[in-house]
Amino acid sequence: MKCVPVTAIIGLLLLSGMILALSAGKYPLGLSDISQLLTGNPPHDPRLSIVFWQIRMPRMLAALLIGAGLAAAGTTYQGMFRNPLVSPDILGVSAGAGMGASVAILLGLSMLYIQGLAFVGGLLVVALVCVIARFTRRQDPVLSLVLIGIAIGTLCGAMISLIKVLADPYTELPSITFWLLGGLNTITINDLQVAAPLTLLGLLPLWLLRWRMNLLSLPDEEASAMGVNVTRLRVIFIVSATLVTASAVAIAGIIGWVGLVVPHICRIITGANNRQLLPMSMAVGAILLLVTDTLARTVSSVELPLGILTAMIGAPFFLLLLMRRERL
Amino acid sequence: MTLVQFANTAIGYPQHPVLQQISFNIEAGEVCCLLGANGCGKTTLIRSLLGRLTLQGGNILLQRRPIRDWRAHELAKWMAYVPQAHDSPFAFSVLDMVLMGRSIHLKTFSSPSAKDRQQALELLENMGIAHLATRQYPSLSGGERQLVLITRALIQQPKLLVMDEPAASLDFGRQITLLKKIRQLKSEGMTLLMSTHHPLHARAIADRVVLLSPLGAQQGSAAAMLTGQKLAALYDVQEADIRHHLGIEI
């Protein structure tokens, strides 16, 4: 089978990405340093231990988690809405989660509430998009879903701007602005402790039900005739994918393109069957975000916001796909 | 034994009734063909039978139980549906497409096993399209897609197979293959309901023919229903034209 070498290659890429992310930076760490730190031996320079455990390790784990999560959410939305052009950002879910999180930051709430309101904001947007899509049945369904998402996303963006105007310019405004840029530079272990369980909670149903995700790509009446409770399955997928997206947005801001581009790349490798596609998307999403984040913090003396880099890589790549392939 | 009973059924939508007072039965083990002009409500009737459309009156009974009381997973064990060949937004392989029909036989969190794949390959072989197994569904011709969708319904192992114009996109040879397949399924004990635009197909296989027109449904044996007079009224043409174009005495 050809899938064995592909899995090995992806695994190898993931491992080297992780090593790169842990070693690169102002305090370069060699392989021996990393293995020493991992086995619990104190390094020759005590600062290295702080750099490794407090900064690089949480940041690497966050990149893996968010990359895998956004790619899984994108794969899910695409399969479930039968629409290869949607993703957490295009549907407006990211902006909705951003709006929720901004409200929480404005009110000075803790990480758990930021997560909670991000989830509520994201869910509200998906629900709104679904309801409006029902009223636009006369339009082309693929296009109208994208356009509705863009419109709702813009609306949420406007609300976020309004929140920024209302925010205290000395305390809340910088933290909202900083967070909105999208990046992993402020990730702490505390953030991860909240976001990781929620992300995994959202990923679990997606993973377990991933073969059934295929059935939702069929017209509703066919899936139903095969015994699928279409509405229930769709709600499970929407809630789970939105939870994953919201957790990512709450700790890292709005990171675009990963959820749209990664499933397309992976369909070329594994085909459309979500049984193989979802794990592949998660792995490639994790690698992509890890490498991008490592680049973002090492290519120049100033750290680049991650969102800028993912857009610079994702947008041209997507256009290339659009031009090259007959069918996405 | 009566498997399906349309009892004074009215189908359609609240503001747009399509057909009213439809009454006919489908007995277990028989082939029933639906005929009617374009837009007469054949697809609407099939969607109502699948439980996807709320009835506007009367009842549809499967095994003497109203269709609206059946849950999707119960219904899927009895009845499989072959839609008209369509496009798919994602490039599933033919094998994956067929295996989706196994969902009712799988546990919620599981996916098709090697045994299911073996069964799918055998059925594809049986349908004469084993060579398509690894092809991508959207790259197939309309006729090939139709055969894949039929295979997908068969792997569901239903007692009643509902097909919406299965012959519409098939070439002449494959139409004959399909009719033979339908006879074979019937001999294995399956009940079939199909809509068709070909009176000759109905004559070749149907035990029962249902003619759908805005006036309602008429049912009877193939010999009683497929007369020049009835077909001329159904399709709004001259009886002589029917005889002339079907080329044989009907």
What can you tell me about this protein's structure?
The complex is a heterodimer of chains A (328) and B (250). By secondary structure, chain A is mostly helical. Chain A has a single domain, classed as ABC transporter involved in vitamin B12 uptake, BtuC (Orthogonal Bundle). In chain A, 77% of the residues lie in helices and 0% in strands. Chain A contains 14 helices and no strands. Chain A has helices spanning 3-23, 31-38, 46-80, 93-106, 111-135, 141-166, 172-180, 189-208, 210-216, 220-225, 230-252, 258-270, 274-298, 306-324. In chain A, α3 packs across α12 (258-270) and α4 runs antiparallel to α7. Chain A is globular and about 65 Å long. By secondary structure, chain B is α/β, with parallel strands linked by helices. Chain B has one domain (2-246): P-loop containing nucleotide triphosphate hydrolases (Rossmann fold), CATH 3.40.50. Chain B has helices at 42-49, 72-78, 94-99, 114-126, 142-154, 172-187, 199-205, 222-225, 228-235, 239-246; strands at 2-13, 16-27, 31-36, 57-62, 65-66, 79-82, 160-164, 191-195, 208-213, 216-220. The relative contact order of chain B is 0.18.
Q: Work out the number of β strands of chain B.
A: 10
The largest pleated sheet of chain B is described as:
6 strands, mixed
- CATH domain topology of chain A: ABC transporter involved in vitamin B12 uptake, BtuC
Question: Terminal Cα separation of chain A, in Å?
Answer: 25 Å
Number of domains of chain B: 1
Radius of gyration of chain A: 20 Å
What overall geometry of chain A do the principal axes of the alpha carbons give? Answer: globular
